[in-house]
């Protein structure tokens, strides 16, 4: 297994050749903000919050899907990147209907945490106030499209770990949204196993347990990584 040597924020580190910049940074204790990234499932580079600067390149690169290279020099926390990231978070707030004070994930929301990390105390963009639906047809769970940030975590967890592929994406641009089966109410889905992995994968309060009130939605994302690790190591087989 080849090892690559690179520099991240003036720190010399080593990484396996198949690793991404994000993995190498995390192994070295270097923080890079993420939202669509989730340990245990594939990366898609959707949120663009993990953009980094690579010396010698004019473009910004998503750390979660960019592989390390020998001699690569990476900057993860420049003023330019901080401005981009704050703008992205502001756009997510402006494009949806995120009212933290009445959200089940208040205090346990990755979007909320990112806003705090970016020092965001107001949104400079015009709010869109889109008309979005809430689906509570499922016996155990609900989905509030007002709080969805289109990270596709639910899609990937359902497909890659549960193998059901209940969730998918539909629409384009501002009309993009997650759907169950062929755009049917979640409660009528024939493929859903009611495992709850999508609930734990969701970074906001978009997919929630029925009966949760404000601030009560606690995600247990370590369960997803536990399942993946157990399968890889065949811990569930004799």
Notes on the structure:
The structure is a single chain. By secondary structure, the chain is an alpha+beta fold. The chain folds into two domains: 3-77, Roll (Ubiquitin-like (UB roll)); 83-232, 2-Layer Sandwich (Alpha-Beta Plaits), CATH 3.30.70. It is 24% helix and 16% strand. It has six helices and ten strands. The protein has helices at 21-27, 79-95, 110-117, 153-162, 197-201, 222-232, and strands at 3-8, 11-16, 51-54, 60-62, 73-75, 134-135, 141-144, 167-170, 177-180, 207-209. The chain has a five-stranded mixed β-sheet, covered by helices on one side. A three-stranded antiparallel β-sheet has the order 6-7-10. A two-stranded antiparallel sheet has the order 8-9. The longest helix has 17 residues, at 79-95.
Features:
single chain; Ubiquitin-like (UB roll); 5-stranded mixed beta sheet; 3-stranded antiparallel beta sheet; 10 strands; globular
What would you say about this model in short?
With 238 residues, the protein is an alpha+beta fold.
Strand content: 15-25%
Question: Rg from C-alpha positions?
Answer: 19 Å
Q: CATH top level of the largest domain?
A: Alpha Beta
Number of domains: 2
| Mean pLDDT metric | 93
Specify the helix fraction band.
10-25%
What's the total number of strands?
10
User: Looking at the structure, what is the overall shape?
Assistant: globular
Largest sheet: 5 strands, mixed
Assign the CATH topology of the largest domain: Alpha-Beta Plaits
Based on helices, strands and strand pairing, what is the structural class? Answer: alpha+beta
Q: Between the first and last Cα atoms, what is the distance in angstroms? A: 29 Å
The largest sheet has its strands arranged as: 2-1-5-3-4
Number of helices in the DSSP assignment: 6
Q: What is the N-to-C order of secondary-structure elements (H for helix, E for strand)?
A: EEHEEEHHEEHEEHEH
Unreliable stretches: none
């Amino acid at each position: 297994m080849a090892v690559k040597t690179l520099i991240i924020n003036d720190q010399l580190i080593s990484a396996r050749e198949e690793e991404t910049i994000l993995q190498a940074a995390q192994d070295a204790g270097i923080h890079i903000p993420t939202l669509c990234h989730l340990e245990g499932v594939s990366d898609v580079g959707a949120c663009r919050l993990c953009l980094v600067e690579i010396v010698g390149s004019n473009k910004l690169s998503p750390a979660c899907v960019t592989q390390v290279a020998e001699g690569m020099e990476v900057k993860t926390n420049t003023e330019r990147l901080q401005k981009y990231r704050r703008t992205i978070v502001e756009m997510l707030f402006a494009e949806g209907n995120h009212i933290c004070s009445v959200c089940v994930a208040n205090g346990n929301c990755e979007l909320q945490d990112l806003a705090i990390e970016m020092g965001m105390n107001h949104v400079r963009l015009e709010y869109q106030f889109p008309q979005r639906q809430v689906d509570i047809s499922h016996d155990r769970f609900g989905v509030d499209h007002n709080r969805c940030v289109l990270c596709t975590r639910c899609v990937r967890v359902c497909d890659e770990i549960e193998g059901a592929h209940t969730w998918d994406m539909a629409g384009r641009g501002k009309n993009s949204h997650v759907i169950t089966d062929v755009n049917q109410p979640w409660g009528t889905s024939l493929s859903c196993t009611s495992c709850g992995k999508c609930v734990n994968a969701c970074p906001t309060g978009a997919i929630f347990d029925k009966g949760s009130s404000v601030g009560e939605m606690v995600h247990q994302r370590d369960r997803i990584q536990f399942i993946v690790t157990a399968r890889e190591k065949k811990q569930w087989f004799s």
